[in-house]
Write a structure and sequence with these properties.
The chain is α/β, with parallel strands linked by helices and 124 residues long. It has a single domain (10-121), classed as Rossmann fold. It is 38% helix and 19% strand. The radius of gyration is 13 Å and the shape is globular.
Length: 124
């Protein structure tokens, strides 16, 4: 998938810190993402993904209730593999995260998020 401003691209942001979720939304909108769902808990994340399957997920590890890796495992069991960018202050708790892939450390880094997004959405 190549996300361009004219292509629909839906992302699920799993993040329990509202300001970080809004910052991620702003960063990803600049990269061409057109719609978002947000979740602060494992249960909310699974429900949001089932209601509106995303093309990409960003996920923290520690949530208000449950964990990001737990939510991702459940989503993948029910919907199949969806690319994930883990963004966390506790990267050691995400080793290994399934699927293996991008694990970024907070604070948010626009260049790193952009690079990870394009590595996933522009595989060529």
């Amino acid at each position: 998938m190549t996300a361009k401003p004219t292509d629909p691209c839906h992302v699920l942001i799993i993040e329990d810190e509202a300001f970080l979720a809004m910052d991620l939304q702003d960063l990803l909108e600049r990269e061409g993402v057109t719609s978002f769902d947000f979740a602060v808990s494992e249960e909310e994340a699974v429900a949001a993904a089932l209601a509106n399957p995303p093309m990409l997920i960003t996920s923290d590890v520690k949530l208000v209730s449950g964990t990001g890796p737990g939510a991702i495992a459940s989503i993948h069991r029910q919907l199949g593999r969806i690319p994930v960018i883990f963004i966390t202050a506790t990267p050691a708790e995400c080793m290994p995260c399934e699927p293996p892939g991008v694990v970024l450390t907070k604070p948010l880094n626009q260049r790193a998020i952009s690079a990870a997004f394009h590595a996933i959405t522009d595989p060529d």
